[in-house]
Amino acid sequence: MEYLVGYLGTPFAWSIFVVLATAVAAAMIVYGIHALRRTDEPDPLFGGVSGMLKQDWARTKQIDFHLPEPDSTSPQQLILRVEERKIVENSMGQEVAQLRWRLATVEEAKEVVACWNAHAHAAKAM
């Protein structure tokens, strides 16, 4: 038995190990509960700017065709997005422009197709 005590260490060392393992397990449980209960708060850099609204969301005439995986050779869904801008005057009197991309409506997609067709016919006429 003394051989095992010398090989495994003293009971005091094992009690320290048990206390440390319990503390680490408790910390992991507390962190897990905190992570589950935490609400998804928006990043203040991308959140709304408080102040007086000068211009609500309006189109900027910028469009974007988005592909989920541009390097893929298989057929993919092509997503048409439209850029919008909102202008807010902050408490310092400065105008702050916020930009966002949203999915295009059917009417906006029809406008893109009409512009493409007009461009294609003009290029054929040349």
List keywords for this structure.
126 residues; alpha+beta; 2 domains; three-stranded antiparallel β-sheet; elongated
**Biggest beta sheet summary:** 3 strands, antiparallel
Note the total helix count: 3
Order of the strands making up the biggest sheet: 1-2-3
The tally of strands reads 3
- What percentage of amino acids are in beta strands? 25-35%
Mean pLDDT: 83
The level of helicity is 40-55%
Radius of gyration: 30 Å
If you had to describe this structure to a student in words, what would you say it looks like?
This protein has 126 residues and is an alpha+beta fold. It folds into 2 domains: 2-37; 52-125, no CATH class. It is 43% helix and 28% strand. It has a 3-stranded antiparallel sheet with strand order 1-2-3, with no helix packed on it. The longest helix has 27 residues, at 11-37. 1% of the residues are buried. The model has no long low-confidence stretch (mean pLDDT 83).
